[in-house]
Design brief:
Length: 71
């Protein structure tokens, strides 16, 4: 599993997993700006919430990189 996939899983739950889903299948559930700027979406297999690699993802990725640099 790549760092990107692992990070997505950690963001919402250590025990839940995610699956990549087509934008067309969730477009009606997304904020308009999200539809315009993002094309890759994931869904939690436990709670069915939809996630994308937006600004929160970027901040979490930076935090993980800083933590890894400390350890």
């Amino acid at each position: 599993m790549s760092l990107n996939s692992s990070l997505l899983n950690v963001v919402w739950s250590v025990t839940a997993s995610s699956k990549k889903i087509p934008k067309a299948s969730v477009i009606d559930q997304l904020p308009a700006d999200t539809c315009q700027y993002f094309n890759e979406f994931f869904q939690c297999t436990s709670c069915q919430r939809i996630y994308w690699k937006g600004s929160h993802y970027d901040r979490m990725k930076e935090m993980v990189a800083r933590v890894n640099g400390i350890l």
